[in-house]
Amino acid sequence: MTNTTRFDIVIIGAGPAGLFCAATAGAAGKTVLILEKNSGPGKKLLLSGSGQCNITHDGPVREFLTHYGPHGAFLKPALMNFPNTALIAFFKERGLDMVTTDRGKVFPVTLKSADILRILEKECVSCGVAIHYNEPVREVNHNGGYFSIVTRQALFSGSTLVISTGGVSYPGTGSTGDGYGLASSLGHTIAETAPALSPVIINRYPFRDLAGVSFDSLFFSLWREGKKIGSHQGDLLFTHQGLSGPGILDYSRFIHPGDTIRLSFIGPVRREQFTKEVSEKIAAHPVSHVKTVILYYKVPERLATQLLFLSGIPENLTCAHLTKEKRNILIANMLEFPLTVAKLGGFQEAMVTRGGVSLPEINPKTMESRQVPGLYFAGEVIDIDGDTGGYNLQAAFSTGYLAATSILKQPGPCI
Ligand SMILES: Cc1cc2nc3c(=O)[nH]c(=O)nc-3n(C[C@H](O)[C@H](O)[C@H](O)COP(=O)(O)OP(=O)(O)OC[C@H]3O[C@@H](n4cnc5c(N)ncnc54)[C@H](O)[C@@H]3O)c2cc1C
Q1: pTM of the model as a whole
Q2: CB-ligand 1 contact for 166 (6 Å cutoff)
Q3: CA dihedral 376, 22, 7, 406 (to 10 degrees)
């Protein structure tokens, strides 16, 4: 490895953040190299939105800031500089329209992630960006204003380096946390990583046979050591081991092992009011089955059967034969069904990574390192994780764009 090939900008990782950064800088005439460890680009992007790619969200970009937990403020300059409308316009100008669901999620009209990736790749190629596949970066060094980037095959150099290696979730896609090691070798701190947007595994889970049953806007509360610490409403899915769906995934950043999640299959109603209402219904319909009272509240039939079983009530019991004690157990189960959290799904199942390159060490107006001039970060490698709904991809594109435009403002020539 005696020969060093020089570029203006070397980008590590061909995910959405790296590709978009490369295309933006390449279009302005910079020589750009992307080094990618996989045999092709955007492996995680292809999986996104179940292969349909929920690329961003509808609505004013200011509202995005509340969708990144406590770290939204960091993203403000990136999102304002390149908002959802600009992302949608970018693809529309290249022949790919977007469609918005009634919940505000934005997808390509073809519902194919591959169409998003094809445009990003084409854009890079037409701007002369060099992409080397099967070339994982092993080591980076910074000396005399230049970065040297070491792979197994070669040595590259550039005055600017962008680390866009993603997080550490879904490691089969190539995001194995390499960027953290590379960033810390250059002096950066890594905020502790953890799985985010994770499904929740439940102890002695009673709804295994109902796996696949989903709920729109289910209300649930979170309890820790006997105290209620929060509540949330969102779409929820019963899995074989516990709970998933956007409502739980988004709220998973607040959930700890040992917590109790109380599901309300009825909504956020007051217990006294609900008890009175159910008692009146039971008294008014003595020959009806108790199950019909549950079904009145639009509870799925299989769940109604299971709630009766878990309340110790025979399925064919009539209202006249329901004791007060069993009635109260049933009401509690309909209103506040308790599930104890065993653990959260690990990195294999989590859609994104919490933690990453520490925010105070990155300038939010440029994405440049505050420690090493010429070093930039983009995408999920940064300590940012968003809710479901397109917020993570928008963050990847916006930070990739901001890094590129900030690099372009640096006085050149680079090499
Ligand atoms: C199943 C699933 C579905 C998702 N769906 C959505 C969705 O619908 N909407 C949404 O907004 N978000 C979604 N996300 C999250 C979103 O895909 C990520 O946040 C986004 O891909 C991050 O982009 P990135 O470019 O930062 O990193 P990545 O997409 O992870 O790309 C990083 C790239 O860097 C490469 N790399 C890593 N280390 C090295 C190295 N040492 N040398 C060279 N290359 C390296 C990797 O191989 C990879 O190609 C989903 C995630 C998952 C797992």
Answers
A1: 0.89
A2: yes
A3: -40
